[in-house]
Specification:
The structure holds 2 protein chains of 2 kinds. By secondary structure, chain A is mostly beta strands. Chain A contains no helices and 11 strands. By secondary structure, chain B is an all-beta fold. Chain B contains no helices and 10 strands. Classes of the chains: A mainly beta, B mainly beta. Chains A and B meet through strand 5 and strand 10 of A and strand 5 of B.
Chain lengths: 112, 117
């Protein structure tokens, strides 16, 4: 199975400041079609995960442009340019290259 | 709009089985896959398996092989996940999620299953 490793696991951020989360995979997620099969989710407190970024760098519909995804192969980053209070929650990365699809441990973003 | 509504909280004793339902609306149920993911307390999300809602083809994570069945009732736009021989480690919130336009793009609200003697 592909192992996904996120860091940091806890991320206190001052509103208006940037934030960055790293996600590394044990196997390259770049497929021959040129896409990286890496997805980011945000799970707000008490809610289900919601899709933020797909194929490594594409924002899902309705996701604010302060969220961006980057990276390729085995190293990926989710960046929030200016954190807002509504961004609080746990961020998960997931590899969709092969089953079993696997997730990172989750990164808990909190407001300072 | 796409919506997945799951059945309510369940409590089971070790060794028992549980069957969680997931009713879909807002799209053509038979045209898209339906996945199941669980989240145990303090653990990462864990993918369990999926079903091709257009036929009866289901695929499972090796971890759950022999204990899990994912089925569907197309006429009711509903998918089911049954987990057998429950143990305390199966205590978790169980989610269904579609692969509507993208993999795992819409999620149900989750169903808490508690396994306790």
């Amino acid at each position: 199975d592909i192992v996904m490793t996120q860091s940091p696991l806890s991320l206190p951020v001052t509103p208006g400041e940037p934030a960055s989360i790293s996600c590394r995979s044990s196997h390259s997620l770049l497929r021959s079609d040129g896409h990286n099969y890496l997805t980011w989710y945000l799970q707000r407190p008490g809610q289900s995960p919601q899709l933020l970024i797909y194929l490594g760098s594409n924002r899902a519909s309705g996701v604010p442009d302060r969220f961006s995804g980057g990276g390729s192969g085995t190293d990926f980053t989710l960046t929030i340019t200016r954190v807002e209070a509504e961004d609080v929650g746990v961020y998960h990365c997931m590899q969709g290259l092969q089953t079993p699809y696997t997730f990172g441990q989750g990164t808990k973003l909190q407001i300072k | 709009q796409v919506q997945l509504v799951q059945s309510g909280t369940e409590v089971r004793k070790p060794g028992a089985s549980v069957k969680v339902s997931c009713k879909a609306s807002g799209y053509t149920f038979a045209s898209y896959a339906l996945h199941w993911v669980r989240q145990a307390p303090g653990q990462r999300l864990e993918w369990m398996g999926w079903i091709n809602a257009g036929n009866d083809d289901a695929h499972y994570s090796q971890k759950f092989q022999g204990r899990i069945s994912i089925t569907k009732d197309t006429s009711a736009s509903t998918a089911y996940m049954e987990l057998r021989s429950l143990r305390s480690e199966d205590t978790a919130v169980y989610y269904c999620a579609t692969a509507y336009r993208l993999l795992l793009d819409y999620w149900g609200q989750g169903t808490l299953v508690t396994v306790s003697s």
